[in-house]
Amino acid sequence: MPIYEYRCADCGLSKDHLQKISDAQLDTCPSCGSKSYAKALSAAGFQLKGSGWYATDFKGGSSTSTNATPAKTESSGTESSGPACGTGCACH
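Predicted structure:
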């Protein structure tokens, strides 16, 4: 269940609430009883770091896959020996 941050515009109370996505939004401040209690925008609790995701990540099966190959980068000023996608493609 997601955690939502709520903030009261009248008294300034800021509080986190654990709610289901299907639950109705809270509108009454638990501190002062005002109807100006609303969800606040806050930063996400996770960060995505690294070079990216591969199509073989988290797909079940064995943990070692022979089909997983990292993305290749070309160095500036040089061309690769051939297309990385194969010889019969329409992208070249």
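Summary: The mean pLDDT is 74.
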